[in-house]
Amino acid sequence: MKQPVEAVLVGAGGRGFDPFGAYALQHPNELRYVAVAEPVAERRERFARLHRIDPRYSFSSAEELFACGQLAPALINATGDRQHVAVSVPALRLGYHVLQEKPMATTPHDCVRIVRAAEEAGRILQIGHVLRFAPFFVAVKEAIASGRIGEVMTVDHRENVAYWHMAHSFVRGKWRNQADSSPMILAKSCHDMDFLRWVVDRPCERVVSFGSLSHYRRESVGSEIPDRCTDGCPIADSCAFYAPRFYLSLEPGWPVCDLSVDQRSDLSPEERMEALRTGPYGRCVYRCDNDVVDHQVAILEFVGGVTATFTMHGFSAVPGRTMRYDGTRGTLLAGEGPEGVRAHYHLGDREEALRIQPVAGGHGGGDVGLIRAFLQAVREGGGEVLTSARVSLESHLMCFAAEKSRLEGRVVDLAAYARQLEAEVAAEDGRA
Ligand SMILES: NC(=O)c1ccc[n+]([C@@H]2O[C@H](COP(=O)([O-])OP(=O)(O)OC[C@H]3O[C@@H](n4cnc5c(N)ncnc54)[C@H](O)[C@@H]3O)[C@@H](O)[C@H]2O)c1
User: Which residues of the chain have pLDDT under 50?
Assistant: First the structure.
């Protein structure tokens, strides 16, 4: 029987618990946790209990974990956006192969640093770009790579974030504020940029972007609206964001688990109401401390003149990404909903629906695929991964360039931007 890959988990929050923890419980012969580091006691203890971790290897900080040296070949970094670098860089230097959640880092300079750390250590640093492992997106990639619509000339890629998901994650929740997390184009759309780069299969040369936080703000409603939905809101019946209606109607699972510290997904109606009265998710969406955009567009030009438009917004009643690729021999339409993937050809008036192998699990099967690919690369002693740090750097810089363009109102040249960042990091780190 195959021996499981031994790993340590840093960050036993939402992602650490599931999918990373859940995978080991479901596939004990593939992955086994030997240590956990997590500052929140409830989360740490629950993870340690479920994974039968020796109490000596249950740590309340990554620093304590690292003080013990390398405990396993692999480390999974599922901490929040702002902790990624501080955990992954020392882990790589200690010799761990690292599977780290996106974004790589919250500044472009730190993204460059983390790539350098991985390459200097000669260890895997795989970033959690789940789309490349989800069968729907793999089908799109393969269809384009097969050449059936000829050479792609232009792409229209939309990330249509559901209005309730926007409210939960980017207005009330963990990614609402840049100081705590990162710009929304990085937090939400580094996946899209990664996928765009992968499908177009050419470096991006220039980016321009526009966008703003227009709706989820104080001025959008009258001053009589209270800070919390539970404080007798006068527009509760007509407001799509009235928290009790939304959170009481949800089945157990995500996003209910975000309501409690120990991430229980089966909270009773009373427990949910108490969380709304006291916690962040009961706040009025027009009275939060959010500052990330609620809609943003980018126009990108790739080597050889391939163009793409990208739209991300948090107002969708019909959620899911939609894409359109126009090539020299046809058009490919793809939607995460029931529409699936369809190719239309110039000649013969033909149309074809592409088959997608359904896979269960989070992110359309992407979570499972991501973890499996990492474990395989660790088993090989440091094999190639599809979303290595170097590959991910390119798409992260596309996000940072778009944000720079949005804020500065100018076109950003990617190659010059990357050169400038490399030089700045070298100078700051005393390597120039
Ligand atoms: N790949 C994806 O599609 C995807 C989806 C959701 C979230 N994410 C990313 O995954 C990461 C985690 O998200 P989440 O929803 O699980 O967040 P979370 O806040 O639920 O979990 C993060 C955990 O890390 C812990 N932590 C913080 N600092 C630590 C440290 N120094 N050492 C050890 N633990 C520490 C926190 O206490 C928390 O429990 C984020 O960066 C997020 O952007 C990726």
Answer: none
